[in-house]
Amino acid sequence: MIPGDLHAEVEAFLYHEARLADEFQLDEWEALLTDDFHYWVPAGRIVGEPSEQLSYLNDNRTRVATRIRQLKTGKRLSQIPFSPMRRIISNIEVSDLGDDEISTKANFVIYEIAAQSTGELRVWPGHAQ
Amino acid sequence: MCINLKALKTWGLFTEERIMFTFMGIDYGQLVQGDRIHASLLHDPDAFAEEMDRIFIRGWVFVGHESEIKLQGDWVTRQLGNESVIMVREDDDSVNVVANRCAHRGTTLCWEHQGNSSFFQCTYHNWRFGLDGAVRAIPFPDGYTNPKEQLGLDRAGQIDSYRGFVFVNLDGSAGPLDEHLGAAGYELIDRLCDLSPTGRIDLSKGWIAHRVQSNWKLWPESDSDGYHVGFVHASMSAATDTYYDEVVVGGDAVSSSRAVDYGNGHLELDFRPSYKSELSWLGVTRDKVQDYYEALATRVGVESAEEMLWQGPPHAFLFPNLFLGELVIAIVEPLGPGEMIHRHTSVQFEGVEKGFNQRLLRQTEAAVGPASFITSDDAITAERIQSGISGTHRSWAKENRGWIDLSRGLHREEVDEMGTRSSDASDETTNRGFWRRYLEVMTRNVSM
Predict the structure, then answer these.
(1) B438 and B418 in contact (C-beta within 8 Å)?
(2) What domains does chain B contain, in order, with CATH numbers?
(3) Distance CA B227, CA B234 (A)
(4) Where is pLDDT greater, at B21 or A52?
């Protein structure tokens, strides 16, 4: 059983991270990342190791930095202007792995307005861990 | 059809000329000219319907790669214009393409993208079809008197393949594949596959769909357009070390690479003259991929291997739907006049170590798809074009409004003895080549 205060701390961290991302506070967001950060968005069914698959996104720390650098050039057409977006996070589960490590799972819904072209509202439901 | 012209005019919505244009059919010869095309062709629903018939049913189209269906019974579904088809490996190892539609009442047979089956069974009345498309079993068959041979799935009229690339012509009327591909089509596929140590590539890592709110024809244009790279992809150039800087960004690079129109709508941005080091296209030096080099040299010889490391894979488009984007393969999938999918996968080489192919996967993820460093910006550009041209009408052609200019570089285009046209890579030779083929097909493949 995870103590209530740890759960509240994780929850607060996730909300903070989501707000920085929603508001494109890129430096503050990047400052949250550790060197072994791995950012993976698989495409469809997950079969085997991430490195063996073709994914939407499979970033190590270096590639995340490049991604942010590209956004900050001021010439990234697909994010001019930045998409108005809000991440709604729910169903947060925290488990204690021992040795000062925890694992966290959550559901999310992202609302994004494609302000760069069509103006349509895009809704991206998903699960993160 | 009975139309009250007077009423339409009274409402002020249409001029008489507009109404006549709407019901007279499309004059492609008027809308596709040597140095410009009419923007209405990028959103007109009548043009779209005719393209799906004349290009995607009556012509040759790329459907998939044999490596996607290695085992007997392996199948994948594919969307070819308005038609959903199944590409399947039959019991005799041959490749078959059938309509993904029950021959009884039209129910979709396979609703997943891939699988393995020994037969296809409809979920409505349990009709069962063999991998060859022939009907195998019908519940309570004494209700039928028509011969069984009439009850099979619609089959592609012609199927042919080259080095694993499978092409179909659904209605069977298009003539042989070699007439469509021509020498250039084969050479482009060769140039890609030959880079593999075994001469074989594998495209079985799955396809990723990137939905774009644009007409499908904007992608053959964009995929083979050298003029936009320094502008649309300026953020990529600024943020990354990309070999595009040496082959297609900036005045010097664009002037040494070539925009090539081989005829039949097959196009290339030929980067070979521009590479400043071997293996630029892979982003490594030879010592990092020594095993690969040696395996390649064993098959093709040292001299050829050295040359191939410099030249790299082609950046080419095969009419109407196959993009050979160096080490990315993409299919252009029309969904409607203003909607399409750019579906891509990563080239994997046979006979290389795991890390080599993983590099190709990461390179593909960086280059294409909604989260990529490159084509995400192309998609936004295509969507901005789509909204820019969506108000144009084909009747405007006569009024000299709504044209798209494709004249760049006409004065310096060269034509060789084979009829191949080439020019500075920033010139619109490739775009003109696409539309020249489009006009040929749209005025020739007319149904009676």
Answers:
(1) no
(2) 61-165 (2.102.10.10), 197-444 (3.90.380.10)
(3) 12
(4) A52
Provide the residue type at B11 as one letter.
W
Q: Which residue has the tokens 């993976």?
A: A40
Q: Which two tokens mark A109?
A: 């819904």
Contact call for B213 and A57, based on CB within 8 A: no
SS3 content of chain B, % helix, strand, coil (to 5): 35, 25, 40
Residue of B nearest to A55 (CA): B365
* Cross-chain Cβ contact A78/B380 below 8 Å: yes
> What ipTM was estimated for this complex?
0.95
Tokens of residue B242, six digits: 């990309």
Segments in B276-353 forming alpha helices (H): 290-300, 302-311
Chain A residue numbers touching B383 (CB-CB < 8 A): 116-118
Rounded to a whole number of angstroms, the distance between the first and last alpha carbons of chain A is: 18
Query: Is residue B1 predicted with pLDDT exceeding 50?
Result: no
Least confident of B189-198, B225-234, B243-252: B243-252
Judged by CB atoms closer than 8 Å, whether chains meet at A75 and B235 is answered as: yes
Token code pair at residue B223:
């995929």
Contact B296, B308 (CB under 8 A): yes
Structure tokens at B31: 């809308």
**Chain B within 8 Å of A76 (Cβ-Cβ)?**
yes
